[in-house]
Amino acid sequence: MDPTELERFERTLLPHMSAAYNLARWLTRSDQDAEDVVQEAYVRAVRFFGGFRGGNSKAWFLTIVRNTGYSWLERSRGEELTTAFDANLHDVEDAGPGPELELLRRATRQELFAALESLPVEFREALVLRELEGLSYKEIADVSGLPIGTVMSRLARARQRLRQILTDRGSKED
Questions:
Q1: Per-residue pLDDT, 123
Q2: Which of 98, 101, 111, 133 has its CA 20 to 30 A from that of 43?
Q3: pTM of the model
């Protein structure tokens, strides 16, 4: 990579390193593993940067991080990817704002993060990209390679599961 291209690479992707780490951290549930995933994604991004033609650099880089993260999960924790997503178990309608929203507001950051970590990886990914990284449904669809309807469905299911986990934990404390 020549110096001009390296400067463009750094200017384009370095602002998204925090988002990359955040996504990798939630996918792997480990600081050290997230650092490894981001490092590997960064190397892949350098390799393929010549093919980046502009546009949404955050979505482009997060796509690489996501793919690297899933490859890492498959190598190290294949069972997590094959057992976590059960459409019958997770198929619930989004109840929208209501008592659950109040529950989420009352939950401490630690409780919320623990509940988020307990979700299947597909749900964690969708929530992190939407709620923590602020990506639009379209951007999440681009990053994950899923239809936008699937993204919306996963988000609704993830929110419902998160509410249920927090409600269950709240009930146990009462």
A1: 94
A2: 133
A3: 0.76
